[in-house]
Amino acid sequence: MKTLLAIIKFQFHDTLRSKWLAIYTLFFLILSYALLSFTKEPGKVILSLLNINMIVIPLTSLVFGTIYLYSNRDYIILILSQPINRKVLFVGLYLGLSLPMAISFLVGTGIPLLIFIKIFSGESVVLLFLFLGGIFETFIFVSISFLIASLNDNKMKGLGLAIFLWLFFSALYDGLVLIIMQIFMVYPIEVPAIVLTMLSPIDLARLLVILNFDISALLGYTGAVYSQFLGSTTGLILSLLTLCIWVAIPFYLGLRCFNKKDF
Predict the structure, then answer these.
(1) Which of 12, 54, 119, 222 is the most exposed place for a label (fewest CB within 10 A)?
(2) Domains of the chain: which residue ranges?
(3) What is the DSSP string of 69-82?
(4) How much is the pTM?
(5) What are the C-alpha distances in Å from 22 to residues 29, 65, 100?
(6) Cα–chain-centroid distance for residue 139?
(7) pLDDT(217) > 60
(8) For the chain, counts of helices (H) and of strands (E)
(9) What per-residue string of b and e applies to 143-155 under the rule 16 or more CB within 10 Å gives b?
């Protein structure tokens, strides 16, 4: 445990000192403040932040997480020359990156919202899910990036796969779902629609926020099904568990690959 905490502490401070993290924080800070300065309507601000977060956080987590593991190869070899368990090192590297990124998102988005907190007096639950979704997206896509980097020794292939996965989940997946639902629209599609949503962490995190607004009717009949299921306590718990599974599975697979990897 002491070794793990030491690795996390070192990587945490090392990540905090990097310029890219300061830029990442400033991006959310400036963006949030600009949106709040242009409009004082909490619904518009939250939905705008949600759409931007669901694009920026997965992309940044995938790309930087992949580069992070490749760039620390010499450090990894040095640490592994010591009597340190590979699993402990992998967990330390993972938390040493994902925790600063999650904090950066919270600080950058949270400070402007605190300044204008009065206009969000009735939106505390929606804000909670907005922050929760951003944190989950960070941990999910950092774990996926570590899996990619552990599977591929070639840096260019790893980065290419990371960008493709971001493009797939952020754009292509929704198109595939729409095509499937259009083809099978004559059949009962309530359960398949919910299952397909849970197979995409971005869509699931987005819906958890959207369904806390009174706008689910804008999503049509399927939106009503989402609201009925995901809006219930059981649906909420299942959705959060699904997001946890999205964190755990890539992390576990990445840990296995890292443990067998020849450095």
Answers:
(1) 119
(2) 2-260
(3) HHHTHHHHHHHHTS
(4) 0.90
(5) 10, 16, 10
(6) 6
(7) no
(8) 12, 0
(9) bbbbbbbbebeee
